[in-house]
Amino acid sequence: MRVVFFGTPALAVPTLERLCAGPHQVVCVVSQPDRRSGRGRKTSPSPVSACALEHDLPLLRPEKVGDPEVLDALREHAPDVGVVVAYGQFIPKKLRELPTRGYLLNAHASLLPKLRGAAPIARAILNGETHTGISVMRVEREMDAGAVALVHETPIGADETTGELEVRMGELAAEAIAEAIAQVAADTLRWTEQDHSKATEAPKLERHEAELDWTEPAEQLVRRIRTFAPKPGGAATLAGSEVRILAARAEPSRSHAPPDAPGTPRLDPEDAEAPLRIATAQGDLVPLRLQRPGRKPLPTADYLRGHPLPERG
């Protein structure tokens, strides 16, 4: 079959690579326009665009995918089916129904109807989910609400970060789409409508959500740090300085008289590698890696050698 692929971030690249390996033909790739990024603010292609260029595939990078010239260009490629993985724009009905099969397949990174929206991987970690997966669904007007054809489920590791889970989910999406495309070709793909009454949302993460509130339990703060890892990490103030906590673990509180107030840092000489504990509403947060703005990340022991805590009065 002739496949048109819509995608933008690194999460989508394994699926495009898998499709390029055959047996079907990728006739066109659609991605977001090149953007400025990095310290030098240089214009660079999206990861999917870069992959398409490497494979010498026809590539469209429209500001608005619904523009008539995009429809005309895709019509010339005569696709049989379309695949969407984290594209990032609303795809209008004329494009959704353009392939000869009449629809687009979307690999959404959650167990639908849970976590519809822009940030299902990060929200799964922040919400404390133990499992997630890829749902191959039909693209419809309402976001992530289309009928589901198949689901590939995976557990979330106890210490897994958003960055780590995204890598695994990219590979899982590739497997799921390859299976779905094979079923489309064999005319065996079957759809099941979602139970919309059980739908939950996964909106884009906001900057303020990275801030660590010490009146939350330590376990919840660790999930927040994992959600914002590898960057920017959890935002906090330590000994009067702004700091990002990039990795941490939760442990039961050490007994003190009187008990430490939430947010109180205390050195732990018994732990040479992570000698810092911060009191929370429930348990202690033990930072494992920290970073000051504009500086490189450091293990806790190395960080404290350069930025020691003031003596407790």
The share of residues in extended strands comes to 25-35%
Radius of gyration (CA) equals: 23 Å
The CATH architecture category of the largest domain equals: 3-Layer(aba) Sandwich
CATH class of the largest domain: Alpha Beta
Query: What is the number of helical segments per DSSP (H or I, 4+ residues)?
Result: 8
Please report the distance between the alpha carbons of the first and last residues: 73 Å
Number of domains: 2
The overall strand count is 15
Largest sheet: 7 strands, mixed
Main-sheet strand order equals: 5-2-1-6-7-8-9
Helix content: 10-25%
Report the mean per-residue pLDDT as an integer.
95
Query: Quick one: overall form?
Result: elongated
> By helix and strand content, what is the structural category?
alpha/beta
What oligomeric state is this? single chain
Q: Give helix and strand order, one letter per element, not per position.
A: EHEEEHEHEHEHEEHHEEEEEEH
Task: Using the coordinates shown, work out and report the CATH topology of the largest domain.
Answer: Rossmann fold
The CATH homologous superfamily of the largest domain is termed Formyl transferase, N-terminal domain
